[in-house]
Design goal:
The structure is a single chain. The chain has 225 residues and is an alpha/beta fold. The protein has two domains: 7-123, 3-Layer(aba) Sandwich (Rossmann fold); 138-223, Alpha-Beta Plaits. 27% of the residues lie in helices and 27% in strands. It has helices at 15-26, 38-44, 60-65, 81-93, 125-137, 215-223, and strands spanning 7-11, 30-35, 51-54, 73-76, 99-104, 121-124, 143-148, 153-159, 180-187, 190-192, 205-211. The strands form two sheets. It has a six-stranded parallel β-sheet, sandwiched between helices. A five-stranded antiparallel β-sheet has the order 7-8-11-9-10. The longest helix has 13 residues, at 81-93. The protein is elongated. The termini are far apart.
Length: 225
């Protein structure tokens, strides 16, 4: 099944913005790339077949010239957190963009990247890297891989330890808490789509989506007390 073609605006054509644009183009989406530097546009315009808009994405008239009201998503990918917040707020409040994703450059600023500023998803690379390091070395505890819905829901990973209460059980026999669902099991580098009769074993990586209030109960089910 192929995804629906979307019109996606990106603010900032630096390393992050240009990479995202290139990736989205290969997936068949229409991309509008807003960049303040004429030199960057000149260097990339032959390489990236996007709709270029030259100007400051924090300016309302620049976003209007990008026809942001017709976009399905907005990606604020500049290297400045203040700019990304302003772009996100304008995209959501002035142009009603359905989905706004913002890059967090400095982890100390992540608390500001919420729905108050129009942000649907905040991506903090230092926190992502920390999660990946923890995921690689941790067994028997929940690791947050990704925050969704302004932190109200998280994608969690737990590697089952020897003696886990879930070891040897099938998924339907687990007392999975409300507002939580197991979305994948990784075993021997193979991804298993979980079903009610899927058994779990020590060493399995279990991925789940859970509301914040369900995390402790999920930890109890998969790791014990």
């Amino acid at each position: 099944m192929t995804s629906r073609r979307q019109r996606i605006a990106i603010a900032g054509a630096g390393n992050v913005g240009s990479f995202v644009a290139r990736d989205l183009l290969t997936r068949g989406h229409e991309v509008v790339l807003i960049e303040q530097s004429a030199e960057i546009i000149e260097a990339l315009q032959d390489e990236l077949d996007v709709n270029w808009v030259h100007g400051d994405a924090c300016e309302l008239y620049i976003l209007d010239s990008a026809v942001l009201s017709s976009c399905d998503s907005m990606v604020a990918a500049t290297g400045d957190d203040e700019d990304n917040l302003v772009v996100s707020l304008l995209a959501k409040q002035e142009f009603a963009v359905p989905r706004v994703i913002a890059r967090v450059n400095h982890p100390d600023n992540e608390w500001m990247f919420t729905e108050t500023w129009g942000v649907d998803v905040a991506v903090s690379m230092p926190h992502v890297l920390t999660s990946l390091v923890e995921e690689a070395v941790s067994v028997g505890d929940l690791i947050r891989l990704l925050h969704l819905e302004q932190g109200k829901v998280s994608l969690l990973e737990l590697t089952l330890d020897e003696g886990s209460p879930a070891d040897g059980k099938v998924i339907k026999d687990l007392d999975v808490p409300p507002d939580c669902t197991i979305v994948a099991v990784v075993r021997d580098r193979h991804v298993i789509t979980p079903r009610s009769e899927t058994p779990l074993h020590a060493g399995d990586e279990v991925l789940a989506l859970a509301a914040a209030e369900a995390e402790n109960d999920l930890r109890r089910v998969l790791a014990g007390d």
